[in-house]
Amino acid sequence: MQSVATTPKPEKVLVAGKKKLKRNDRFWVFIFVTPNLVMYSLFILIPSAAGVLLSFCEWNILGPISWVGLDNYKRLFDDELLIPAFVRTFKFVALGVLPTVFGGFLVAVLLNWKVKGIGVFRAMFFLPLTISSAVAGIAWSSIFNPEAGWINRILDMVGITGPEWLSSFTWALPSVTIIVIWLSLPLVIILYLAGLQRISPEVMEAAALDGANVWQRLWQVIFPCVSATTTLVVAIEILAFLSAPFEISLLMVQGGPLDSTTSLAYYAYKVAFEQFEIGYSAALVMLQFFVLMSIVVPIALVRKYRKAKG
Amino acid sequence: MANSILFTRRRSVNTLRYSVIVLLALLFIFPLLYLVSGSLMTLEAVSVYPPKLLPPSLNWQNFADALVVMTPRIFLNTLFFTFGILFLQMIISFTAGFALAKMPFKYAALVVGVLAVPVFLPTNISIIPLYLVTFKLHLLNTWGGMILPIVGSTAFGTLLFRQFMVNFPDGLIDAARMDGASWPRVLLRIVLPLARPPIASYSAITFLTAWNMYIWPLMIGNTDELRVATVQLAPLIGGGVGFYGKVGPNVTYAAALLSALPVVLFFLWAQRWFINAIAGSGNDA
Lengths: 310, 285
Known about the structure:
- The structure holds 2 protein chains of 2 kinds.
- Chain A has helices at residues 15-54, 71-78, 82-111, 118-126, 133-144, 150-157, 172-197, 201-206, 214-225, 227-243, 245-252, 264-273, 278-309, and strands at 57-58, 66-67.
- Chain A folds into 2 domains: 10-54, no CATH class; 73-309, MetI-like fold.
- Chain A is mainly α.
- In chain A, strands 1-2 form a two-stranded antiparallel ribbon.
- By secondary structure, chain B is mostly helical.
- Chain B has 2 domains: 2-65, no CATH class; 71-246, Orthogonal Bundle (MetI-like fold), CATH 1.10.3720.
- In chain B, helix 12 (196-211) crosses helix 16.
- Chain B is built from 16 helices and no strands.
- Chain B has helices spanning 2-28, 30-39, 43-47, 61-66, 72-102, 108-116, 124-136, 143-151, 155-166, 170-178, 183-191, 196-211, 215-220, 229-233, 249-269, 271-281.
- Helices cover 70% and strands 0% of the residues of chain B.
- Classes of the chains: A mainly alpha, B mainly alpha.
- The interface between A and B is large, with 103 and 106 residues.
């Protein structure tokens, strides 16, 4: 790699000195690595392992913890609330991932342009990245407000009476999805911009964004060039839409109205913090994990296979 | 002749492209633009139907009123929370990242593997056990409980710094070692001065994440001494009542803007590092 790396090491160090040096090395490795590993084990590794173990236990926080084997997992099959929560999770992913990926790609193509002032517009598209869910909640609840909000005002102007959005059983889930899309787009745009900048200038020249068939060339020439980015982005966004609607839903509608935004993650939260069934809640989170894995692992394998093929 | 025709066609296409970008960008950040506009309206102006795009008169008083919500104490809490996490986590991630890449350490590969293990586990799986650990350590409702468990998520920083160190020239380190420099000295005098890019990327991402964190500070520090901006603002969503009584939507908007301002300014100032940090993670794609 670097030519300096191959410089032969000095052989003339005394044996005793070497031993001392080695002890010294070990001491400093210990000092450098231990605080990290202790903190990581204490606050991430052990709690995660404990969480997995709790899915095999019954516990109501106050009482003792008892091992129940696979009971919590068996219970998943009899849970009438689980299927609807599952369906809602699927709806979040289905409604959210495609607009985020394709929208992000199109905006990135537009922004991938060396022209004066483009930085300002890029920054505008990146802005939601910096916004907390709480601030996004305040901004969007005003936009979605059924009586005084801008969306219904604009619908009103074209003669449509808009729905109640966040307080509507039907429209709450799409509304939350829109907010999560908005929060997710900056990351997708940034990743696609990075991907587009790796395309060779000749290819970009050939696919110059003017003339006839712009749309066709966009999808047939440019989009295949960023397929690696697309795989990554799809995986990231599936992960995001499996979990991110939880925080928005918690902040804005508390899983309602009438459970209409209660995803798998939110349902697990409710079982833990409202019904205090910690073990069953953990099994629900594990289910979410298995769902994620069953989607992400094939994607990763396909990616690896493609890479191996060249 | 042909050239000039091509040129005009290109120019009109460029104008179109520019207009689309401007329009989309404005539409995209409209929720935030309206937040700014509404934060400068009087209560009457912000409550009428149809809603107004621009404030009829600039009512700066809202920002003074918003200080009742976003008190200096809340700002200080959020700053302390954010920078506490940033510095503590950076120190232990930087040193470990260095040791894993450049020091003679048999188990380096094992440690890297262990760090990557829970990446895909939903964070919710650990939140109750994490709460329990914090409780057992007597850290509930303390700064330690707010900050230390978050500092524990060292995987991102450690792997980021390790990646940088792996590509760091061995020659510089070997030369210093031969001159008798101790490991801490190598770390501080040789590596640290050249490590600005990964430190900047790490700081940008961590600052943003910590400043906007909600669930953990809500669980651990929902007291006047510890409450951070997100926890303070959350009850106001959709016109709710906060910890300090009711305020109008215009004041709510002003408070939301005040809480977002530090991150937005920091982002605009250090945009490059954010982009590097994020795009860098997709570089191997």
